[in-house]
Every structure is written in C-alpha cells, then in structure tokens.
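yo

u said u wanted the structure for the complex thing, so here. seqs first:
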Amino acid sequence: MPDCLFCMIASKQLPSSIVFEDEAVVIFNDIHPKAPTHVLIVPKTHVESILALDEATKDLPGLLILKAKQFAKEKGLRGYQLRFHVGREGGQIIDHLHLHLMSEQTI
Amino acid sequence: MPDCLFCMIASKQLPSSIVFEDEAVVIFNDIHPKAPTHVLIVPKTHVESILALDEATKDLPGLLILKAKQFAKEKGLRGYQLRFHVGREGGQIIDHLHLHLMSEQTI
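structre next:
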C-alpha cells in the first residue's frame, strides 16, 4: 500500500531496526518503547486493523500471536504482554494491523 | 479442569456476570475493571496460557480475537484494546487462557 509507513518498513523503503523477518511478518523495535522490550509484529499483507478483517484476512491476528510467541521463546522471554490497539479510540495510530509485544525483560 | 476458576465460571459452578456465550467461549466482566468496559473472552477449552499452546490449540488465540471483534461490533464499541498477559512475569494471574477487551466507552 503506497504511503503506508509499515508497508514501507516491510519492503525496506524505510529504515527500521528489524529483529526478525520471514515470509509473512517483520518484527521491529517500537520507535517509542513503553517497556524494556517493545517490538511490533507486523504482517507483510496490508490490512488496516482488526476492524478491517475479512474472510481472506481473518487468520492474521492468530498468526501474529503465534509469531510473537515463537519470537519470545527464541529470545528467552518468560513473561510478556501482547496487545492490539483497535481504532483511533483504542489508541491505534498507524493504519496497518500490528501486534505489540512488551516485556519487562530485555532482549 | 477441576479447581480452575475460569472452567468453573464457564460451567456455571461459579457465578459471574456473563455478557455473551456460545459453543466455544464465554465473555464476562472483569472483577477488577481497569477501564469503563473491561471484559474477558475465555475459551471453554482449558489451556493454561499462550505458552501452553500446542498443535491442537494453536488456533484459540485467533478465535478469541474474532469473538472479541464480533462482541465489540454488537456493542457499538468504536475503539478498544485487546490484551493477552502471558506468564506470571507478563501479569497473568489465572492459568486459563483469556483475552482482555478494554474500552473507554461503556456498554
């Protein structure tokens, strides 16, 4: 999606500190971290938000959760929070679906 | 699972303020709300946490997200947060997988 910040990060048109990447997602550090570890798990497919999920994209949130779990395990995180902000009134700032992973541990 | 608080709520052995129920989940008000709307989406299947997901249960988190989305839409919530607390160090208190839905709007 042109002009989408997270699409540009995923396609390397914009720099970011990517800490994991595979065919489906990129994971990078939040630019305004709210915890010692704060990364965003972002699908390469452009979907605006939880509100915009349809039949073709409804499995994306579950995929992001599993990717987050796998990443946390590889990094040795014992405890963490996973958050979706949904809609402006839910605190969503960037209109590209993303999952926050926050931990009091550092990686 | 005997002695699991959320299994007992789901099977009506313990009282709670259930606001939605279907074959797969119950949704009830958090007993210590952190927002004007704060409900828990809980699978009837007992799984300890995100950490305990296996091949048979790996789709549960995605299902909980979709149930939360559907519930929020029915209640007219425009914005909200969805959170999993993972492990004691992630703030998980009850060892039965659950998704927090929090909104500044009331339902």
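The radius of gyration of chain A is 13 Å. The interface with chain B takes residues 50-51, 53, 58-59, 61-63, 65-66, 69, 72, 78-92, 103-105 of chain A (CB under 8 Å).
cya
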